[in-house]
Amino acid sequence: MKRVLITGGSGFIGFHLIQRLQKEGCDIRCLVRTNSVTDVLKTFDVELYYGELRDRDSLIKAVKDCDTVFHLAGRVRARKKREFDETNHFGTENLVNAAIQNSTPPVFLYVSSLAAVGPSNREQPKRETDIPCPISAYGKSKLDGEKAITVVSGKIPCSIVRPGIVFGEGDRMNLELFKTIDRLRICPIPGFRDKIYSWIHAADLTELIITVAQSGERVMPESPVGTGIYFAADNDGIHLSEAGREIGRALGKQPIYTIRCLPIALLSVSTFYEILKQFTKVNSPYDWAKAWESLHHWRCSPEKTQQQLGFAPLIPFSERIDQTARWYREHHWLSAR
Fold first, then answer.
1. Residues in Cβ contact with 182 at an 8 Å cutoff, skipping those fewer than 6 apart
2. Minimal CB count within 10 Å: which of 47, 166, 241, 279?
3. Range with lowest mean pLDDT among 39-53, 90-104, 106-120, 144-158
4. CA 141 → CA 6, 33, 133, 219, distances in Å?
5. Which run of H or E residues covers position 69?
6. Which residues sit opposite 29 in a β-bridge?
7. Phi first, then psi: what are they for 75, rounded to 5°?
């Protein structure tokens, strides 16, 4: 990898990827919108290229002369399904079609989501060979992005990575869980039973997607289900209560108490946000879709990445939680002890 294009470089995962690629001496170009906050990107030696996933001409110029494209950009909150589709489906379709225009098409690495394949059951983690069955508009839009890549995969080397829950320094999605445990010593559990999630630290995800871009198998038309696709997780599932205890330990807040959030309570809260979403411009953090997703297990197997790529987390889960908690403290995202 000499010259790479990163979409979503101003985001949480993008920050970690840029740090890692700079160590490799890569020439990095970041696609950013004109209204993107680029303060963090300006601290790196990267080229900022202003464009939009819906603007095909800007994308053709952005990918020119690049040998690798890391497509991280995606919409995780939206007021309507079409807003998910505009970015996650059609934006991905536009970008991969732009990449094909290069005289030598670049390696195209798409960071999708476990949501694209849907939740697991309690006993069995999802595997790449499982038929996708997403249960949310977000998950469906990410799966449609995967399908858009598969359609043209015979013309360009493409691989897909589906992460589980990504956490780490700079992560805002899981910050609320850390805050709740820090302030109240409470770990909320959606539904009647403890949930099992597969987790991966952003630095480990970064190592994996670079490895897949360099030596992973590729998506091909008419290939068996799961070809060229990898789940990203440092384990095949950790109970949410166990993760909560690890967070409490890292924050120096013990013991941690688990509280079951009944489905009727989740429905009530999500209904409030759903109404708010319909009458304001707010992209609600907890609508009906999120409530429904929270009542499921989200497990995926790391077996394929281990066997094919020799991938293993650089640092154990508990130490990664320590790192994340320390970063939150140092950057005042959590109060000092």
1. 251, 253, 334, 335
2. 279
3. 39-53
4. 20, 20, 12, 18
5. strand 68-71
6. 5, 47
7. -100, 125
Has this prediction a pTM greater than 0.90?
yes
Tell me how crowded residue 43 is: count the other CB atoms within 10 A of its CB.
10
Nearest to 192 by CA among 139, 133, 244, 122: 122
DSSP string, 194-260: --EE-EEEHHHHHHHHHHHHHH-----TTPPTTTTEEEE-SSS-EEHHHHHHHHHHHHT--S-EEEE
d(CA 277, CA 279): 6
Q: How far apart are CA 197 and CA 296, in angstroms?
A: 9
153, 93 in Cβ contact below 8 A? no
Give the span between the Cα atoms of 168 and 210, in whole angstroms: 18
What domains, with CATH codes, occur in the chain?
Answer: 3-172+198-236+298-315 (3.40.50.720)
Count of residues in the chain? 337
User: 12-37: per-residue pLDDT in tens?
Assistant: 999 999 999 999 999 999 999 888 78
Element (H, E) at 27: strand 27-32
Do 160 and 132 contact (CB within 8 A), yes or no?
Answer: no
Contact 234, 243 (CB under 8 A): no
Measured at the CA of 200, the angle between CA 188 and CA 274, to 5 degrees, comes to 45
* Helix/strand/coil for 96: helix
The answer to whether residues 217 and 158 touch, using CB atoms and an 8 Å cutoff, is: no
pLDDT, position 1 = 83
Q: How many C-beta atoms lie closer than 10 Å to residue 129's C-beta?
A: 11
| Pairing, β 238-239 against β 196-197 | antiparallel
